[in-house]
Amino acid sequence: MPILVVDVGGNNVKLRLSDGEEVRRVPSGPHLRPGTMVERVRAATADWAFERVSVGVPGPVKNGRLVDEPANLGGGWLAFDLEHAFGVPTRVVNDAAMQALGSWEGGKMLFLGLGTGLGSALVVEGLVLSLELAHLPYRRKRTYEDWLGTRGLERLGKKRWRAAVVDVVAKLAAAMVADEVVLGGGNVRKLDTLPAGCRRGDNERAFLGGARLWDSGWRVL
Amino acid sequence: MPILVVDVGGNNVKLRLSDGEEVRRVPSGPHLRPGTMVERVRAATADWAFERVSVGVPGPVKNGRLVDEPANLGGGWLAFDLEHAFGVPTRVVNDAAMQALGSWEGGKMLFLGLGTGLGSALVVEGLVLSLELAHLPYRRKRTYEDWLGTRGLERLGKKRWRAAVVDVVAKLAAAMVADEVVLGGGNVRKLDTLPAGCRRGDNERAFLGGARLWDSGWRVL
C-alpha cells in the first residue's frame, strides 16, 4: 500500500511516494497555512495513488499531534485535522524526527537539521524522540536556532556560522551522550568539512523515515 | 537473588539491598576515589548477602561504562573496574538515570536531580536515556549546573535559585518535549512549591531503579 510522504520545510514542501523515485515540490514559506498546504499537495499529486499519508512538520509533535504552532510557517496548524483533510489515514511527525528516523543506522544518534530553523531528534533502535533543542539559550541571549538557523547564517556570515556549528554540535552531542550526530537540512551543504563524530544527512532519508512511520517496529515519542 | 544497590552521591554513598528496607551510608566527597568507595561499601555491607551489584555514579555512562570522570568526585573512576572490585556481576549506570528509572510511572519523563551537580535522564516505557544537560550554557556564560547545583544555590541564595529552577525546568521540559518532569536530588527539599508539570522525586526510588537495571524489560542507553 503506497504511502504519500509529505516533508513540510520552511521553503518548500517535498512529496514522494514510498514506492516511487520522483520527488515533487510545492511552495512553503512563513505564511503557509495547513489548508493551503493540503490543497497544493493534492493538486500536485492528483495522478498519484496512495492510501496513507506521512507528514513531517517543522514544529513540536507529541503522540502524533502538534502541540504548538510551527515557528517558521503561517498559523492555524495546531487546530487543523490533517487526516480529515487528506481523507486517508495520516501520521504526523516532527520533520526532523522523520528525517532522523530515516537516517538511523545504529547506536544513539542525534539528528540536527540545519534549515530555516534548527530541527532535532534522538534515535535509538526502535524509537525516535522528537526534541526541541532549537529554542534553548546558547550565547548572548540568543538561542541555538538564532545562531545555527538561516537567520544566524545571514547574520554571522559563513565563517562564523561554521565555527558556531562546530561548537554547538560538540555541546549538544555531549549533552545527549550521543554515539553519532547526523547533520541534515538544506544548509548542511554550506559546511565543507563536518565536525568530528558527524555524518552528513540526506534529505532523501526523510522519505524513508516517512515510510518507517508505518512500521510497527518503530515508536515515535 | 538479592541485588546490592549503591547510589554514589556527592556527599555520601547510599546502600540498600533490593529485598531490604535498611539504608546504610558511607562518606563521599570531591576526593572520593573508586577503590576507597568499594572498600567502604564492602566494610559497611559485610553482613549483607548479595550476588549482584548496581552502581549509580554521578558521571556520563554509555553502554554500562563511564566515558568521563565524574565532575564532583575524586579521580581514577574512568579506568577502574567496579565489577572486578566487587567480585560479582555489576551494572554501572548514571546516578540520575538510576533514580529516573525507579521514578518512571508513564509517558515521556524528564528527570532532573538537584544535588551537588545537576543530573538528568529521559525515560519512556522500557528505555532510560542518560543525559548530560548540566554542562550546557544557560546564562551569563554559566551552565545549568552552575545555576542549579549546590554552588548555584550558595551563590544565588534560595530565592533567586528557586526562580532559576522554575525557568530552567520550563526550558528543559520544552526542549525534551516531556510529558512530565520529576525533580529529585537532595536540594529538591529546598523548593516549597514545585513548578507546573513537576512531580517530587524520592531518593528511595533510586533503589527501585537499581533493581530494575536487572529487569530485561528495561534498556539503559
Secondary structure topology:
2 copies of one chain form a homodimer.
Chain A: E1 3-8, E2 12-17, E3 24-27, H1 34-44, E4 52-57, E5 61-62, E6 65-66, H2 82-86, E7 90-94, H3 95-103, E8 109-114, E9 118-124, E10 127-131, E11 137-139, E12 142-143, H4 144-148, H5 150-176, E13 180-184, E14 198-200, H6 205-212, E15 219-220
Parallel strand pairs in A: 1-4, 4-7, 8-13, 10-15, 13-14
Antiparallel strand pairs in A: 1-2, 2-3, 5-6, 8-9, 9-10, 11-12
Helix pairs in contact in A: 3-6
Question: How would you portray this structure in words?
Answer:
The first copy, chain A, has helices spanning 34-44, 82-86, 95-103, 144-148, 150-176, 205-212; strands spanning 3-8, 12-17, 24-27, 52-57, 61-62, 65-66, 90-94, 109-114, 118-124, 127-131, 137-139, 142-143, 180-184, 198-200, 219-220. Chain A is an alpha/beta fold and 221 residues long. The first copy, chain A, has two domains: 3-95, Nucleotidyltransferase, domain 5, CATH 3.30.420.40; 98-205, ATPase, nucleotide binding domain (Nucleotidyltransferase, domain 5, 2-Layer Sandwich). Chain A has a six-stranded mixed β-sheet with strand order 14-13-8-9-10-15, sandwiched between helices. A five-stranded mixed β-sheet of chain A has the order 3-2-1-4-7, sandwiched between helices. In chain A, strands 5-6 form a two-stranded antiparallel sheet. In chain A, strand 2 and strand 3 form a beta hairpin. The longest helix of chain A has 27 residues, at 150-176. The A-B interface holds A 60-62, 67, 108, 122, 124, 127, 129-133, 135-139, 171-172, 174-177, 179, 221 and B 60-62, 67, 108, 122, 124, 127, 129-133, 135-139, 171-172, 174-177, 179, 221.
